[in-house]
């Protein structure tokens, strides 16, 4: 069951029906496994677990219809999430709590906006710091807790050309219509003198995808042809 407010925001989703395990089909020995000769083996019969189950989720919004709270429960585990926003609509905080006991599932993040040229683009979210180019595209994401970084390069039409994720690089090539026609992956090697790059070598040895036509895509080991009806 789904509930909505007067402006069609979802207020809650719930299901109170607890499913039962599927019944065994008659005449086939249930959901048993087969032996080496393809015969049903009653000794290897397995029990099917029921799918789905009872759950409930509720949501709350502010006067501008922004989600500020969500909470719910399913299969005995619950969660709650709260968010706050600034005057320009930018997120300020996000706090999530779960009953699973997982550290990754529960967290509290604060959004900082320290770039005067991009006042609504976060400069830091939790442990991640963000750097942008003049067009507002992210060019560097650093995580000081994991000591990792991601670097991105964009073309003059704000299309992603390259993504370097801790030494592993993905490159993207587009045609005149703006459609991506080549996607490749590999490792990047560079020579630096006094911290300045003198030369870079890109090794596209891992994988690549080429899109020569809308109905065809080619990877390193196979190709796929797509058929459309209508």
UniProtKB/TrEMBL annotation:
Gene3D superfamilies: RHS repeat-associated core. Residues 24-49 are annotated as: Disordered. InterPro entries: T6SS_VgrG/RHS, YD. Residues 36-49 have a biased composition (Basic and acidic residues). PANTHER family: PROTEIN RHSA-RELATED, PTHR32305. NCBIfam families: YD_repeat_2x. This is YD repeat-containing protein. It comes from Hoylesella shahii DSM 15611 = JCM 12083.
């Amino acid at each position: 069951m789904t509930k909505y407010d007067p402006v069609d925001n979802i207020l809650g989703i719930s299901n109170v029906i607890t499913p039962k395990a599927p019944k065994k089909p008659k005449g086939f020995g249930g959901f048993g496994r087969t032996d080496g000769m393809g015969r049903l083996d009653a000794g290897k019969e397995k029990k099917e677990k029921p799918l789905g189950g009872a759950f409930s989720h509720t949501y709350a919004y502010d006067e501008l219809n922004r989600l500020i709270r969500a909470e719910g429960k399913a299969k005995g585990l619950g969660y709650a999430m709260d968010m706050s926003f600034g005057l320009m609509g930018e997120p300020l905080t996000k706090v999530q709590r779960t009953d699973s006991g997982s550290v990754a599932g529960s967290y509290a993040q604060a959004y900082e906006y320290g770039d005067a040229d991009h006042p609504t683009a976060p400069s830091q979210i939790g442990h991640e710091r963000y750097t942008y180019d003049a067009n507002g595209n992210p060019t560097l994401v650093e995580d000081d807790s994991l000591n990792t970084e991601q670097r991105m390069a964009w073309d003059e039409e704000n299309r992603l050309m390259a993504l370097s994720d801790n030494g592993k690089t993905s490159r993207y090539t587009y045609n005149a219509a703006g459609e991506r026609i080549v996607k490749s992956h590999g490792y990047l090697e560079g020579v630096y003198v006094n911290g300045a790059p003198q030369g870079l070598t890109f090794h596209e040895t891992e994988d690549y995808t080429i899109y020569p036509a809308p109905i065809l895509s080619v990877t390193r080991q196979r190709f796929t042809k797509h058929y459309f009806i209508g």
